[in-house]
Amino acid sequence: MQGFGSSRARARLDNVVELLLLFGGMMPLTTLRKLTVALAAGALLVAGTSASAFTKPPFPRIGGIDIGSPMNFDDPTYQAQIARQDVSILGMYPGLAPGGKPLNTSLQAIKAKNPNTLLFLYAMLDCLGVAQANDAFAPLRTKVTSMKWWLYSDKSLSLHVLTPHDTRFGEINITQWAPQDSSGNNAVDYITRFFVNTNLTPNPAADGIFMDNTAVNPPAAGDWQRNGTILQPTDPKALSAFQAGYQRYYQLARSLAPGKFQIGNITEWAASGAAIPAGYVNMVDGGVMEGAIGKSWSVEGWAGWQVMMKQYNAIMAAVAEPKLIILNQWGDPTDYQSMRYGLGSTLLNDGYYSFTNTATSYHGVVWFDEFDAKLGQAQAIPTAAWKQGVWRRDFDNGIVLVNPKGNGNQTVTLETSYVKLQGTQDPAINNGQTVTTVTLKDRDGIILMRKNPVKRPAAPQKLTAGT
Asked: How far is CA 314 from the centre of its chain?
């Protein structure tokens, strides 16, 4: 592994190449004109359900990254699958109309199946495809080019800095050094308004925007200051200005879209134990740890389970309520042991677990027996292994055990009898048997249900102020 920067570049490819290059589609000129006029008029305030009204779901909490092709969100079967997830990120581009219908119609249909699910629409601030002409992002590209908001590598402002590992994308200068247009907007101001107008204004059923690449470090060297001096990504000036650009985005997005949540791809945060910048604390309401398990660049793979969990816990502590953190795993959906390991690891804190089928990438919902376990509410987050290097967390209706990578096979004795899940996918494990001991393989996990669930006291009734 050559450092986390290269993993961020690979993660970006998983997220955006298909989305922007293949599914941006062609928009009628009338639609493009309307979009341009709407953007020039400024952002509209987006009314929506108050963020404070959200009630956190019981465990396990399931997330989904559903941004891949086909974006057939009008398909009732796909809608029902998405609705089973607690939080979903959906693909989005200007003018997207699944089945020829407004996207909001599909969002409403999903919400009708599960009013408590949260739906986020995809966006990206820091880069844009450079070669297209009449695709859905043409108005934005025209604006970025005319204002010279690209990141350049020469003083004449003619040479684009292209995205590392994918030269179809150009980096955008999201710092305060980017010039202002006639309305006083720099690149961040304008692009934020673009995505609020594009993603949220016509889609009030959406719960917010997912902003990809919400990174800590600049992606490339360039003339960030626009003075002919190339700043490397590690330069303190580039670092602080780049981070300020993302802080400005989230600040402005909140003001333009009150009542909506704002989450991002925060895979890079707290990498290898690095401190999360002070300005990023409480900046987002959640985000995605993309490919935390199962990719060639996954933290769990190259650094180990303990490092991944340290990062996960640090991110959970740093984001604002309701802490919508999705821990994403890639793999073969028939590898039930690996899935239980990833799900169990997620359950050791309060995040949402997402499984991506390597064969189909970010399209389709994979469902496992364990997702239907009714664990209820969680008890304390563990800070140390329970016994024999195995970690445990208790819930009202059950427990989860996780045997970390490198701990070898472990047989643990339980303090009382528990019941295995009854399922169909892995009958050797999910067979409904009552057990007092469990053997976990290396890199394994399991959910067990209580015979006697914990009973919480009923909420007091008819309280008045001061009671």
From this structure: 16
Domain identity same for 170 and 89 = yes
- Identify the domain containing residue 116 by its residue range: 4-372
Rg of the Cα atoms in the chain: 23
pTM score: 0.90
Angle among Cα 36, 40, 46 to the nearest 5 degrees reads 95
Domain count, the chain: 2
Q: What CATH number is given to the structural domain containing 277?
A: 3.20.20.70
Report residue 28 as tokens.
């009628």
Separation in Å, CA 225 to CA 236, 242, 308, 397, 450: 12, 11, 35, 56, 60
Residues 35 and 177 in one domain: yes
- Residue 58 CB-density burial (10 A; 0-12 exposed, 13-18 middle, 19+ buried): middle
Separation of alpha carbons 73 and 250, rounded Å: 27
* Contacts of residue 28, Cβ cutoff 8 Å, sequence gap at least 6: none
The pLDDT tens digits of the residues spanning 132-159 come to: 767 899 999 999 999 999 999 988 888 8
- Candidates 196, 216, 221, 215; CA nearest to 206 is 196
Q: Render pLDDT for 190-233 as a digit per residue (tens, 0 to 9).
A: 999 999 999 999 999 999 999 999 999 999 999 999 999 999 99
